[in-house]
């Protein structure tokens, strides 16, 4: 497999965690979203992913984009350890939390949107994340055990940790979100989350390396 990734992309980080958890080795091709006006806009990368976004994964003779589509494919082809619970209710909760982050928070504060916001980008990002986290905190108080849904790592956790990193980068006050904070801390102790961390990627700038 070949993963096209950017060290700081939260969507890429989700996929890196999934690959690490499932023990799938891969080659990483960095795509710098800022350098050269954004390497994702090159003709070469557009041919790979017409949406001109990371991540993209070449695997088993196909090229997939969109982090949850990739993670679902990995789940179906490498079922252990599972990232979707067997219980239908828990499975639905995992998908709900993942969608909440992937559709309801992250796109509103990603690079392409922030570019449009000009000087207000920090305030905009903070408001989008805080609004999403208020709802997420409430949901997690009903679903969480050690992790987002019960005591098994799931797709929801793969979405949560990178989004908390975004919140910290945009200086969101995490005080009102004790459940999110607790879960994030527990997940960051797991090896798959450590090795996939933005501070430990081949394309991480020296000043941001762990």
What is the CA-CA span between the terminal residues? 26 Å
Overall pLDDT score:
97
What strand order characterises the main sheet? 2-1-3-4
H/E topology pattern:
EHEHEEHHHHHHH
Overall, the morphology is globular
Strand content: 5-15%
- Return the CATH topology of the largest domain: Glutathione S-transferase Yfyf (Class Pi), Chain A, domain 2
Overall structural domain count? 2
* Major pleated sheet: 4 strands, mixed
**Any idea what the radius of gyration is?**
16 Å
Family: Belongs to the GST superfamily. Zeta family.
Subcellular location: Cytoplasm
Pfam family, one: GST_N_2
GO molecular function: glutathione transferase activity; maleylacetoacetate isomerase activity
Keywords:
globular, 210 residues, Glutathione S-transferase Yfyf (Class Pi), Chain A, domain 2, alpha+beta, Glutaredoxin, 8% strand, four-stranded mixed beta sheet
Structure description:
It is found in: Cytoplasm. Its main location: cytoplasm. Its cofactor is glutathione. There is one protein chain. The protein is of the alpha+beta class. The protein is 50% helix and 8% strand. The protein has a four-stranded mixed β-sheet with strand order 2-1-3-4, covered by helices on one side. The longest helix is centred in the middle third of the chain and has 23 residues, at 121-143.
Describe this structure in a few short sentences:
The chain is built from 9 helices and 4 strands. It has 210 residues and is an alpha+beta fold.
Note the topology.
Layout: E1 2-5, H1 10-21, E2 27-30, H2 43-48, E3 56-59, E4 62-65, H3 67-77, H4 88-104, H5 111-117, H6 121-143, H7 155-169, H8 178-187, H9 191-195
Parallel strand pairs: 1-2
Antiparallel strand pairs: 1-3, 3-4
């Amino acid at each position: 497999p070949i993963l096209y990734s950017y060290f700081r992309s939260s969507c890429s980080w989700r996929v890196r965690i999934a690959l690490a958890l499932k023990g799938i080795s891969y080659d990483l091709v960095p795509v710098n979203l800022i350098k050269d006006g954004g390497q994702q806009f090159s003709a070469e990368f557009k041919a790979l992913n017409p949406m001109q976004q990371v991540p993209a994964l070449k695997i088993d003779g196909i090229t997939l984009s969109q982090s949850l589509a990739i993670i679902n494919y990995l789940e179906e082809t490498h079922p252990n350890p599972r990232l979707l619970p067997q219980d239908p209710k828990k499975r639905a909760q995992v998908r709900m939390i993942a969608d909440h982050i992937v559709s309801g928070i992250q796109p509103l504060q990603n690079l392409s949107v922030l570019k449009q916001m000009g000087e207000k980008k920090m305030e905009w990002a903070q408001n989008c994340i805080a609004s999403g986290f208020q709802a997420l905190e409430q949901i997690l108080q009903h679903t969480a055990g050690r992790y987002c849904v019960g005591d098994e790592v799931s797709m929801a956790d793969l979405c949560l940790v990178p989004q908390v990193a975004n919140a910290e980068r945009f200086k969101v006050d995490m005080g009102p979100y004790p459940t999110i904070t607790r879960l994030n801390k527990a997940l960051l102790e797991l090896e798959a989350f450590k090795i996939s961390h933005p501070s430990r990627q081949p394309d991480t700038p020296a000043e941001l390396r762990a």
